[in-house]
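User: Assemble these into one structure.

Assistant: Restating your components, then the assembled model:
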Amino acid sequence: MMERRFPANAWATAFRGIAWRETLRFVQQRGRFLAALVRPLVWLFIFAAGFRAVLGLSITPPYQTYVLYEVYVTPGLVAMIQLFNGMQSSLSMVYDRETGAMRTLLVSPFPRWFLLGSKLMAGVIVSIIQAYAFLAIAWFWDIRPPAWGYVAVFPALILSGLMLGALGLFLSSAIRQLENFAGVMNFVIFPMFFASSALYPLWRMQESSPLLHDICAANPFTYAVELIRFALYLEWNGQALAVVAGCLAAFFGAAVFMYDPAKGLWSRRKERG
Amino acid sequence: MQGPGSGPSSAADRADALRITDLSHRFGSVQALSDVSLSVPRGSFTALLGVNGAGKTTLFSLVTRLYSNVSGRIEVAGHDLRRQPAQAMARLGVVFQSRALDADLTVAQNLAYHAALHGIGHRQARERTRQVLAQVGLDQRAGDRVSALSGGQQRRAEIARALIHRPDLLLLDEATVGLDVKSRAEVLALTRRLIAVEGVSALWATHIMDEIQPDDDLVILHKGRVLSSGKAASIAGPSGLTQTFLSMTGAAA
């Protein structure tokens, strides 16, 4: 395979370059960092405070005791940061494609799966910085998971970030114009977030609507939330891990297929000249 | 870094910078290219002349693997694009028809990003950035954001970016589109100069006949077919290039 012809440090250089560009763009867009933090904080400070009074939570794994609603909702808000970040990354892919910057990436001699994977990983790094910043603020709001939970959640954040980023990458490959993206945001982000275990445990869903429960149980975002929740409280959730890893493979495989010059989107695009 | 698989490869070193054989491509029912064959000799300036819609950009997209070629063969510096894509792509520098620089980054940052995408380390990239920016006359603008450059300067920055990994072949797709007369002449003269300085070959796609000189290699593309190829002077004949081109494409219309 031609990929082996590159020395290892060339792969590392290419990855660093892609990650550096994503980070640079993120730093330049300070509003994006602020927005990414304000959104979950509003949910935590206002929404969760209001719901605390009306929503009682009995003991729900991984929690060993009754917890406040703010405590319950925090892992879901961390996942929300990653969901928005994944979609933001795909938005920037669509933007890059429209402005022509995408072609700079795709004419690199490195294989396309590596280029897309590097871009995906770069987006995850940015989302993890945001997630830890949110957890740090939540700590002052008395949401204090075990100290080792902050370490254990790191691989979970990588995996869930990759899955949600891969979903965004796949969506970006199917979207032809930037204007279409707003619709996808509404049809993907909100249904994924609300029809999940981010805001309420699934057993409560079951009580109110078995159909809604089944929808939530089929939503990959539910498993990203549970993976983060269990890791943050130092518990193992094999099912969440398997679903997130499986969805990551499926979404990333679909994205690579769509960006393949012979198969997906690019094979059907026609330009003038 | 020259790219993967570089080193003493005499066959590849002697090969044409670009050789396309029997290349066809269709978009659904539309035949965009039909049995296109052409070559770009090493160290040459080859003009690809055609009206809008002739298939120039489709051809470039196939050579740059934005589309995949399913029929025909493309070789870049002796490397088959389908079998050795990494080796072929490493020898290719591209200036697209539409601007492809990141306007929010500086000129040097854009070049550093492109160098990284070719696996060129930071120190080497910095040195090479200095060299190529000096060659295109932008050494004083390295720290400026691309959005602060004029159209002609942006084009020169794109040429610098395309050169940073020392390609064998520069593909320039209507590189003077949208530029004023002075900038157009500068970009064209710069490209011709780089062939001598960098030892690179250039395939220059255009629909402007003034950009072609009598001793240039010329390929005329019309409706996805090569109508003629050879030295511009011999194709033009006594009636001149414009008249010959019009009668050729008129006959083929």
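Chain A has a mean pLDDT of 85.
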